[in-house]
Amino acid sequence: MKVLYYDCFCGISGDMNLGAMVDLGVDPDHIQKELAKLSVADEFDVSFTKGEKRGITGIKADVILKGNDQTHRHLSDVNKIIEESSLSNYVKDTSKAIFRIIAESEGRVHGKSAESVHFHEVGAIDSIVDIVGAAICLEYLKPDMLISSPVQLGGGFVKCAHGTMPVPAPATIDILKGIPVKTGLVNSEATTPTGAAIIAHAAKRFNEGFSLPISKIGYGLGTKDFDVPNVLRVYLAEEHMANKGQLILEANIDDMNPELYSFVEEMFFENGALDVFKVPIIMKKSRPGVKLCVLCEPEVQHTMEELFFVHTTTLGIRKYPVEKILLDRSFVKVKTPWGEVTVKQGLKNGKIIKQKPEFDECVKIANENKIPMEKIYRFIWRNLEDI
């Protein structure tokens, strides 16, 4: 499994993300070729140059405008630019999803609907390039999982189209609701709404660290100079390189409020658990109980132990090593009348053993088109025979 880990110790912006992706190995010519498919492509150039911040070498991405882009676009205007291009469906859908996150947050901040929000800075050409570019890079790298550290926001005040705003800007912090953040490292805006939306859309887990062997590291340089390196660091890791020896930590619990289990599970996942599951059991004196089990890497064992003791009622934990035997994995896209769906494939010696549509993508299609999930599944299974 290919994993991208975003180390946002000094925040994230759209141009920092693009720079980090190129430093990580995305072909800059490929990014420019794909961006040229946009109808506004004659209004900008993109450059990627080697540079350094506080002794750390990385890539600085810059969008050079050929004119003075003062257009204030609505979400529909941006979607039209994306839809009318010949970009892949994945890039289109990802780009539009990121823009919608920003539009909905701006709407909540200003008391408007997402469709009626006037994009200012984020509707400008450079932000369109940053967001569509992010989608292009994700398609190029094809990560199976994107994990992020807590996101550094910075501090102080920032000037924007609405005047002087506190850092984090209202839209930025609204986008990052429910996501671990940090503040105050620098007296400036460290994370922009664009950077926040990229993370909010793409990251599936938020951990302070991770335990997979690193194959590549990319640094994207920011524009400002701070006392700390103003860079975004991104790691590329391959799970098949890792030692598959892992741990199961478990405890039998019969005296905890059942409402707390969902909260405890999220705490485990946010701090590096690979899996969390519960087994109903009958304990002494015929008391119904739960065996709470956590699968984790040895590196986070002590964190998991602390979470058990702090957030559950258990007084003791069992621990034992386990080994995993995994099929190789690949992903294919199946076109349906309602949009593309990713199908995960398990392979042994190059032969497909099993296949499964991504559930969340099917749920999204079902909700948007008001159709049963079973109809989507039937269509996908029929068309998988042709792959």
N-to-C SSE series?
A: EHHEEHHHEEEEHEHEEEEHEEHEEEEHH
Give the assembly state of these chains.
Answer: single chain
Main sheet: strand order: 9-4-1-11-10
Biggest beta sheet attributes: 5 strands, mixed
Percent of residues in beta strands?
Answer: 25-35%
Radius of gyration, in Å, reads 23 Å
- The total count of strands amounts to 18
| Unreliable runs | none
**Average pLDDT reading:** 91
Count of folded domains: 3
Q: Which structural class fits the helix and strand makeup?
A: alpha+beta
Work out the helix count: 11
Proportion of helical residues: 25-40%
Q: Span from first to last CA?
A: 21 Å
Shape: globular
Could you walk me through the main structural features you see in this protein, from its secondary elements to its overall organization?
The protein has 387 residues and is of the alpha+beta class. The chain contains eleven helices and 18 strands. The chain folds into three domains: 2-240, no CATH class; 245-323, Alpha-Beta Plaits; 328-384, no CATH class. It is globular, with a radius of gyration of 23 Å. The strands form six sheets. It has a five-stranded mixed sheet with strand order 9-4-1-11-10. Strands 13-14-12-15 form a four-stranded antiparallel sheet. A three-stranded antiparallel sheet has the order 16-17-18. It has helices at residues 14-24, 28-35, 75-83, 89-110, 125-141, 170-175, 193-202, 261-270, 301-311, 359-369, 373-384; strands at 2-7, 44-53, 56-65, 145-148, 151-152, 157-160, 163-166, 181-182, 205-206, 214-221, 231-238, 245-253, 275-282, 288-296, 318-323, 328-336, 339-348, 351-357. A hairpin with a 2-residue loop joins strand 2 and strand 3 (56-65).
